Amino acid sequence: MNASSNPILRIEGVGKAFGPVTAVDDVTLDIRENEFFALLGPSGCGKTTLLRMLAGFESPNAGRILLEGKDISPLPPEKRPLNLMFQSYALFPHMTVRQNLSYGLEMERLARTEIHRRVDETMATTDLTQFADRKPEQLSGGQKQRVALARALVKRPKVLLLDEPLGALDKKLREKMQLELKRMQNEVGITFIIVTHDQEEALVMADRMAILKDGRLLQVGAPEDVYERPADRFVANFIGVMNFIDGKVGVDGLFAAEGLQVKASGNAGSATLAVRPENIVIGPPGDLPVSGAIVDIAYHGLDRVLHVKTTASATPLQVRIPASGAGNWKIGDALSLKIDPARCRLFQ
Ligand code: ATP
């Protein structure tokens, strides 16, 4: 199921302060139906506070939260058609997987057969059928994580809120679960809002993402928008790897730094050129406009990152090249490079 363009949730000028600390500052954001949405930002940027306000565990000092056009601000958590999956899983240790899933539905006094049907269906979606009779202590970390997710899904919320859901898993399992979460979200067709501080995770999973810093919303967009067209220096640096070259835009509209000229349009004055490591082309010395020397080479499996010292920037530029095309480049080699003006950003 694909995300539609109808907003299911509207966050309107929402703010929250804890005494002198402004945790969330005037955030306005629409989240679409069936969308996998990520709230991303460094520690302390206000992501969890925003999620807790959606769930009803904190109340905003300013603004409104609308679900399908209705203000849910006055509703307590249990009356909201949103469900929060906790970071700590919070499974009942003495109950089996099936009992953990059934519990919430029994509280809602659903009929036995309906509970059975829904629990079976949810266990199938989350690959838990074979563990139905096990208790949490008999499960691996990834399986427990799936039970926590299943328990939130079985109640069929309109929106599922996930606070760092993969935080407790090791890297390999985390990467596997990122894809599984995305598959499950697609299958159940529920809007997922996930909080993460891991930019890779947001890029892999999200249909769209919001980047927050110091409680403020800096940018909202699809992963490729944010990666290709970061709104400011902070976002450019936070998402992926970025080279920054300080220089000036002249009256001719050309960006120039020591030994480097790029046709990037901007206003005359000081400026910073931002270019991704994959958007720099290298060649033998003298072939391309900028000359440099390799000071370091980092091997990353499929590709290699050359650290190249040039006159254009104080810190070496990172240049990503496929391992297959890496040739015989060695530390100390001289080379030349070129920056494609269409693939870089100018910040002023
Ligand atoms: P992390 O990734 O570290 O969990 P976060 O982006 O989720 O961070 P929040 O937990 O939302 O950030 O916190 C935002 C700011 O509000 C922080 O400066 C935090 O110290 C402060 N804060 C959060 N909850 C409270 C509280 N109950 N009382 C006082 N300050 C709080």
Automatic annotation (TrEMBL):
Residues 9-239 form the ABC transporter domain. GO terms for molecular function: ABC-type polyamine transporter activity; ATP binding; ATP hydrolysis activity. Keywords: ATP-binding, Cell membrane, Membrane, Nucleotide-binding, Translocase, Transport. Pfam families: ABC_tran (PF00005), TOBE_2 (PF08402). It catalyses: ATP + H2O + polyamine-[polyamine-binding protein]Side 1 = ADP + phosphate + polyamineSide 2 + [polyamine-binding protein]Side 1. It is an enzyme of class 7 (translocase). Transmembrane segments: none annotated. One of its GO terms (cellular component) is ATP-binding cassette (ABC) transporter complex. GO terms for biological process: putrescine transport. Its EC number is 7.6.2.11. InterPro entries: AAA+_ATPase, ABC_SmlMolc_Importer, ABC_transporter-like_ATP-bd, ABC_transporter-like_CS, Mo/tungstate-bd_C_term_dom, P-loop_NTPase, PotA-like, Transp-assoc_OB_typ2. The complex is composed of two ATP-binding proteins (PotA), two transmembrane proteins (PotB and PotC) and a solute-binding protein (PotD). Belongs to the ABC transporter superfamily. Spermidine/putrescine importer (TC 3.A.1.11.1) family. Part of the ABC transporter complex PotABCD involved in spermidine/putrescine import. Responsible for energy coupling to the transport system. This is Spermidine/putrescine import ATP-binding protein PotA. It comes from Shinella granuli.
